[in-house]
Design a protein that fits this description.
Elements: E1 4-9, E2 12-17, E3 21-26, E4 33-39, E5 50-52, E6 55-59, E7 65-69
Antiparallel strand pairs: 1-2, 2-3, 3-4, 5-6, 6-7
Length: 72
């Protein structure tokens, strides 16, 4: 599975593995419940995602930045 990082945003967990699989899951002590996922452009993702003002910013090893609007 590899390495990854996670952050909490409200009542959700944002998980990003080093290969660019981004997952959103509910925070629950009972079980892991994935709500959605996306595969980001192929590269290495070693920086943790950052959430600011409703937007999720993700940078890959090449320096490209992906911005996802989570305010909706």
């Amino acid at each position: 599975m590899g390495l990854g990082s996670l952050i909490a945003v409200g009542d959700k967990l944002i998980l990003l593995n080093e290969r660019g699989r981004l997952s959103v899951a509910e925070i629950s002590p009972e079980a892991y419940r994935e709500i959605s996922f996306a595969e980001l452009p192929q590269d290495l993702y070693w920086s943790p995602p950052v959430f600011v003002g409703g937007y999720l910013f993700i940078r890959n090893l090449s320096g490209d930045v992906v911005c996802i609007d989570l305010s909706r």
